[in-house]
Amino acid sequence: MIRPRHVLSQPLGKIVTGVEQRYANIPVTGVTTDNRAVIPGDIFIAVPGAHVHGAKYGDAAMHAGAVAIITDREGADFISADVPVIVTAQVSEKIGQIAARVYDNPADKLTTYAITGTNGKTTTAYMIDHILRALGEKTGLIGTVAVHIAGHEVPAELTTPQPADLQAMLAALVEQGGTSLVMEVSSHAIAQGRTNAICFSVAGFTNLTQDHLDFHHSLEEYFAVKSQLFTAEHSHQGVAVASQTWGEQIVAAHPEYVEALVVGKEQPGAWIMHPGEHQAFNLTSPTGETISTYTDLPGDFNVMNAALAIAMVNKGGYRLDDIAHALKTHHGVSPTVPGRMETISYAPRVVVDFAHNEAALTQAITALRPQTAGRLIVITGSAGDRDTTKRPAMAKTVAQHADVLIITDDDPHSEDPADIRAQLISGIPPHATWKEIADRRVAILTAIAEAEPEDTILIAGRGHERFQDIGGTLFELDDREIAREGIANRRPPND
Fold first, then answer.
1. Among 205-219, 273-287, 448-462, where is mean pLDDT lowest?
2. According to the model, what pLDDT value does residue 468 have?
3. Which of 103, 129, 153 is the last residue of a domain?
4. Does 121 appear as a known binding residue?
5. Is 293 annotated to bind ligand?
6. Would you say the pTM of this structure is higher than 0.90?
7. Is 186 assigned a ligand-binding role in the annotation?
8. Is 119 annotated as a binding residue?
């Protein structure tokens, strides 16, 4: 957990209401919902879990140095600790606000950028971070791949951290002189209130396609949760890609502070992106200013991601002229994004991407097809304990657009991997060229060994991930490292 090194203590009575007078001046220097992370001076917030109430660990938190425990009525019955116990309803919804008070509202001292959408969040976040650093900002970056805060980089456990951890990260960034924060905000995080204590300076919307319906039940519910980020409670300004009706609906609901980003067509009050050749593009603001730049990342969708990133940085306070000047010496909008259309080799071309739904797979294949003289081979699976309805459509679209489809395992979690593969295979149309190789490592090595130099291999679904979850046990498995191994083991031509 990333925390600030020095925290000015706050009296408990200032942090939460309902504290007995004799406890009101107890100094508080931190907050956590994980009893294993408690350090002296912390408030321990005990929330109900899926299987166990956190309050059962109240005594352990006290012995680790917790100075108070906040929980709900149910949790209070588990606690015998000799520290103040503050009981409140809907405790989970209040964690962010409590943590923000403990750390003196760090988000208010930063320019904060939030990205939401089904696909493109990570790449757009990295692009914004790239632009801001080119402009001289000291940034923090939080997302699916990793957390970069105040000189620390740690692998991400969640796309959007839990609220107490998030506020601690922001405080650490402020302590180290940080000026801007860029973060991905997932629909799960919005629904669970993880960012409730932050009103973002600028919010951005990429797109919405079928995914996570195991959690949201319908596409309409999924959208309703995403759109909450663009209310006045959660953001001050916004930019929404309006190439779908979903983005158009966000703009229509909040025309006073959310601007549309469209491609090629004149639309009053909108950002207009004109794509050129070789990933170059012009972007015109609603006030008529224009920037010309490019991205090295492949695909039309990455041109749109780059345009969104520029528009958001502009809304964050930078003139387009200043952005253009900074990008001239920083290779356009071209950050290295781990596991996002990441090229491992060129003959054959091997690309690792996080695409794990029908729309993202289609975009990745469409981007790689013009660059492929030979066959386009796609290796994919589907994660377990997730939206099962998307699986047949994923395999169908790959089989229709690629030359060869290899069905393999992703992260089965608690599901039977064979059942997941069978659901994918059920969507493959007749006469498609495909094979099933359950072991992902074997699938990747086989595809690379059998490929011709002019072929392209897209390894989709896991991107940057370094471990595979099979039945709750983690096994080391990094698609990028396996691909490098496969390339190293290929025989030279004419050998």
1. 205-219
2. 97
3. 103
4. yes
5. no
6. yes
7. yes
8. yes
